[in-house]
Structure formats: C-alpha cells, structure tokens
From TrEMBL:
InterPro entries: ADC_synthase, Chorismate_C, IsoChor_synthase. Belongs to the isochorismate synthase family. This is isochorismate synthase. Residues 111-360 form the Chorismate-utilising enzyme C-terminal domain. Keywords: Isomerase. It catalyses: chorismate = isochorismate. NCBIfam families: isochor_syn. It comes from the Bacteria.
Length: 369
C-alpha cells in the first residue's frame, strides 16, 4: 500500500512525472476506499508470465490481456517503489524519458457495423450452438491523450468510489485507465471471493428496489452464476456462501450481482488454475467459453488487447485482489480509445444492444469530457 509522505507532494504532478519516464507503474483505489495505492518498477522490463502462479511470493501488480498471444502478453510489475514522497520523486526523475510510442490503428465500429455483427452472432445463438456471446467495440475520443490521463484518473477516483479505479502504464505495452465494477478473485488469508456481474440498464434516479429486470437479463446473470458455481465444484471448494442476485449500482448504471465467498483453503497451484478457468468469465466472453471465443474472434474487427482482461495487486504473503478490466480505455498520445461491450443472447435486439454500449461509454465520457 502506498504512503503519501509530506504535504509538499502533489499527486497529480507526481503521477505526471511517472508518465514521462521509461518506467512501469500503477496507481489505484479499491472499492469503498479513498486510499491511493501506488507501485513502480524502475529497473528493467516487466516480467511476462503464462500462469499466475509465476507471480506468487512476490509483491507487485499483474496486468493480463483478454486473450494472450505473441503481441499481448501477461505482465507482472515488481513493486520496487511504493511510497509517494520526495525520495521516490527524485529517483523517478533520474530515469530516462519515455520515447514516443507508435500505436496501431484501431478499428472503430459504426452503429450499422455493430448491429450487423450482432445479427451474425444471432444466427449461432438462435441455432443453439451457444447460449451467450459478448460483442465489444471501440469508441474514440479525440483531442484527449496522455496529457489528460492523470486528471482523468483522479476524476474517475472521485466519481466512482465503489469501483476499482486504476491507471497502469507499461512502456511499449500501453497506458490504461478505468473504473471497473467487477471483481475477478480476492484472496485474503483464508477468505476467497469472486462475483457474477451481468445485465445492464440506466439508473436514472430510481431507487434500487424499484428496478425491474427483463428475462433476457435474468438469464444472462444465471449463465454466469452457473458457470462460476461449476468452477467452485471443480476444485471441491465447499461451504460457498452466495449473496444475490441483487441490483447493484455503478455510477448511473445498474447490474445484477451475485457474490461468492468461502473460507476454504486453496493452494497456489489450485488458485492459479482457478483464475485460469474463470478468466475470461462468461460476463466478458460468453458460454460455452470455447465456442464464444471462436465467435468473438470471427466477428470482432479489433483486438481487445487488455480490455476484458484482468489486473490487480498481488502480495508476497499470497493475498491478491484481481479485477476484470472493464469501463476502461487505452490512452494514446492524442486520443483515448474506450472499449465497451454487451452480452448477446438469442433474444437480443441489435438496436437495444447498441444503446447499452452507449450507456456504458458514458460512465467514462461524462468524467473525461
């Protein structure tokens, strides 16, 4: 956990210095916490890993893609600096400046294209080849870029206190910021938790108890819950407490959420395998997972990169807190690429699904603009 020492340290300026240097770093706040946590690796390149267990017995931060390949790999940032103070600032200032990075062109789907992609998916879904698939798209915000990243991150922190709000910068990999509502896995001593999050609609000033859900959204949530329960069963984790589904707010958007919690012991190998089985969850991929992944790769005209991957801190004592990379954007030099998506089932209506992605994009756009 970071410790901010001295009233002469300005967080905004400190993080901007980090952005200008050839170092990997991260900053985040946990749900329902105002404490800014920070870590930086100032020597060498980040460690790439295939299985999460390779990162255990270390302290730092993991940043994994939606689907690992040669171009987008999982990274572990060692926590060599964790305090925000004058000593850290001077050490970071002594590092080399970061070189301007060339970014690949991003495919921006039009409304018509996105709806056509949904129609293509519906053929498989109505043919009962699979139950659900997630379709994503990119929305580009021009004239906002690295110079706006720190203020955008701090604004997200203030606006979404119940989310995991983060900024991660890895040289030659990219800069990402976001405010995700979805926990992947939390392990604290003998307590082990995860959640199912699915279904989306606007809150629009209503009380949570007055929110009603359509059958399509209830079914989406049920798919995710059933899958997570099957993973718990695979590892014979007993006495799993469930809470939900309940309506939960994330800014001006609400979701159906079910929490899972157990105090069962789980060793490092099992924990690593559990995360591998869970990621990507049906909430960001679909069911069955293999068929949904194949359909996504055939339909989407962009690489999700680290969107819908996972990220979060890992401690040397084995504790970890991982979140799904949602409500997030990749920050380019002079623009920001917002990644958004929605769950497609046999009952989906293309126009309504497009509007859902627009609602989700607004959770970030309202803050950034």
């Amino acid at each position: 956990m970071s410790i901010i020492e001295g009233e002469d340290i300005d967080i905004h300026d400190f993080l901007n210095v980090c952005l200008g240097k050839d170092i990997a770093f991260y900053a985040f706040t946990r749900p329902d916490s105002n404490t800014l946590e920070f870590g930086a690796q100032i020597e060498g390149e980040t460690e790439k890993y295939d299985e999460l267990k390779e990162c255990f017995a270390k302290s730092g931060f993991v940043f994994a893609p939606f689907h690992a390949n040669e171009k987008y790999q999982s990274h572990f940032i060692r926590r060599e600096i964790s305090k925000i103070n004058q000593e850290s600032l001077q050490l970071i200032k002594s590092k080399a400046d970061i070189a301007l990075q060339n970014h690949d062109d991003l495919h921006i789907s039009s409304r018509e294209e996105y709806q056509a992609q949904i129609e293509f998916m519906l053929a498989d879904l109505k043919g009962e080849k699979l139950e659900k698939a997630i379709l994503s798209r990119i929305e580009l915000l021009e004239n906002k870029g690295r110079k706006d990243a720190v203020s955008s991150f701090l604004n997200l922190r203030d606006t979404y206190p119940k989310a995991f709000v983060f900024m991660v910068d890895i040289p030659k990999v990219g800069l990402w910021i976001g405010a995700t509502p979805e926990r992947l896995v939390r392990k604290c001593e003998s307590t082990f938790e995860t959640m199912a999050l699915a279904g989306t609609q606007k809150l629009d000033g209503r009380k949570l108890e007055n929110i009603s859900w359509e059958q399509k959204e209830i079914d989406e949530q049920a798919y995710v819950v059933e899958y997570i329960q099957s993973v718990f069963d695979k590892y014979q984790l007993k006495d799993v407490e469930t809470d939900g589904p309940r309506t939960a707010a994330a800014g001006n958007i609400v979701h159906l959420k079910t929490l899972f919690k157990t105090r069962a012991e789980i060793n490092n190998q099992e924990l690593s395998n559990f995360v591998k089985d869970l990621h990507p969850t049906p909430a960001v991929c679909g069911l069955s997972k293999d068929l949904a992944l194949d359909l996504i790769h055939r339909v989407e005209n962009h690489d999700r990169e680290y969107y819908a991957g996972y990220l979060g801190p890992i401690e040397e004592n084995g504790d970890l807190s991982l979140f799904v990379n949602l409500r997030s954007m990749k920050v380019l030099e002079n623009s920001m690429a917002l990644f958004v998506g929605g769950g497609i089932t046999a009952d989906s209506l293309p126009e309504k699904e497009w509007m859902e992605t627009c609602f989700k994009a607004q959770t970030l756009l309202n803050v950034i603009k």
